[in-house]
Amino acid sequence: MSKSAALNLARTTPAGGRDMPPRAASATAQLQALLHLPPGEAFDSLLKVHEILGAELPSGELGIYEAGGGSTSFLPSDVLRRAHVTVVDIDEEQLRNNGYAQKTILGDIQTYRFAPGSFDLVICYNVIEHLPDVEAALTGFFASLKRGGLALIAAPNPKSLTGFVTKYTPHWFHIWFYRHVLGKKLAGLSGEPPFPTFFHPLVTPAKLVAFAKAHGMQVVYRREHESPRFPEMRRRMPLFAALLDAFAVTASTLFRTADMRRGDYHLILRKR
User: Fold this and answer.
1) What gap in Å lies between CA 2 and CA 99, rounded to an integer?
2) Contacts of 45 by beta carbon, 8 Å cutoff, 6+ apart
3) How many Å is the Cα radius of gyration of the chain?
4) Which residues pair with 154 in a beta bridge?
């Protein structure tokens, strides 16, 4: 997708876009289209993330490290406007598609290191599930932060229904699903998701939080939210989606787990 900065709507729009004035509703629709996020829990949680970043990050120029970065930023525009963004990615095509970073580095986020205390914010958005060595990546993220700096991590939850299916099915099935269920015709082509997934144990939210706390980080925000795949399927294939909804509710009850439809999460951490 083409790059544009995410709009900062969180402080001016109610979650989900209810009862918004026309101008705010239009801006919300633009953001949803830009990020390919349907209305729902995932989008509401992202708006909350925007609100927290706007309130917690220091005023003035910001140093931001984006670990894995393609054509689109999930950060609010008022943050990007005053930021020097450094992107590290192992894929040259992803770096070529990036139009918002001031510096791009071809490198592996598991091993690439910056000087300690270099950044106000590290963002790793839908990337850690693709890494075989998440521990190494996280250690590097935390070390690169200034004291009081923030880390924003977004990822799928491997213990959810979508996470379980993704983990235990072959990559060709993921491409088929994106193309024929989600309607993403370019899925699997060069530079296009879905990408191969490892699901290191630290991707699980509880284990990630425990690891972060042990490495001097504290939780500012954590929300496990319904995967955007569910509202997409409800729109495109309502009968199939209804069957999945029923299956997820039944499985959650039988296994006494949290709602298995909550397939993704946002986590904001602060360095103590």
Assistant:
1) 9
2) 223, 225, 266
3) 18
4) 125, 266
- Amino acid identity of residue 164, one-letter, is F
Question: Range of 263's domain?
Answer: 15-271
The SS3 of residue 251 is helix
Answer yes or no: is 10 within a domain.
no
Residue with tokens 């983990």: 167
For residue 205, being part of any structural domain is answered with yes
- Cα separation, 87 vs 66, in Å, equals 5
Is residue 8 included in any domain, yes or no? no
86: CATH: 3.40.50.150
Residue 6 belongs to a domain: no
Phi and psi, residue 269, nearest 5°: -120, 150
When divided into structural domains, the chain yields a total of 1
Q: CA-CA distance, 71 to 3, in Å (whole number)?
A: 5
Type and span of the H or E element at 218? strand 217-225
Q: Which residues of 163-185 are buried (b: 16+ CB within 10 A; e: fewer)?
A: bbebeeeeeeebbebbeeebebe
Calpha distance 15→238 (Å, rounded): 24
The pLDDT tens digits of the residues spanning 110-149 come to 999 999 999 999 999 999 999 999 999 999 999 999 999 9
In the beta sheet, which residues pair with residue 268? 152, 221
Taking the C-alpha atoms of residue 219 and residue 151, their distance in angstroms, rounded to an integer, is 10
CB neighbour list of residue 228: distance below 8 Å, 6 or more residues apart: 37, 38, 40, 42, 43, 264
**Stated pTM of the model:** 0.79
pLDDT tens per residue, range 226-266: 887 777 777 877 887 788 778 777 877 777 776 767 789 99
